[in-house]
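Task card 7
Instruction: Convert sequence to structure tokens.
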Amino acid sequence: KGNGLSVEEWLTYASPESLALYMFQKPKSAKRLYFDVIPRAVDEYLTFLAKLPAEEPKAQLENPTWHIHAGHAPQAELPISFGLLLNLVSVSNAEQPAQLWGFIRRYAEGATPERYPILDRLVGYAIAYYRDFVKPTRKFRPAGDVERKALEELAGALSTAPADADAEMLQDEVFEIGKRHFAKEQLRQWFQALYEILLGQSQGPRFGSFAAIFGLD
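Output:
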């Protein structure tokens, strides 16, 4: 057990494979388990897993997931990351997997638990992680005058965006609105404001990707 998080607790919020990757890296270094490293560990595992099929045999041997799965890794082409899934749970306050799958299908047509079994497991982990770690710490704040004007412009832009607008198009729009209301060196404050005002947290997803999956309405 390290800093209040045990192996058993990790496995409540993430897969055994993500923990295996966390332990695999720098194996001789002492490890302390923190709840806030879980999302990164999960997405790093999924990134390595997705790369594996296209890699040359030598490169596969350097890929941690080849060893984690003893050379028989499952397919893992997922439409969204675990980090984005967590933010979707946070904003939607979803407590049931079916609610999350409704949002996922809106973003990735034809997505089902049967088609993406790994993602189906992640949905359960995301709900548990949000319930125990994110929800108790959320703290929303009101917008300042400049932030309010920027948010009103963003709301207008989203309301007139094409229904098929992708994440990149939406991200560009968010960025351009930020540039019109904030000095160049203050753009970081614009994105932080989005997270604090809309999500109740100091960090958040790439906003264009989030808007695309959550829905423009």
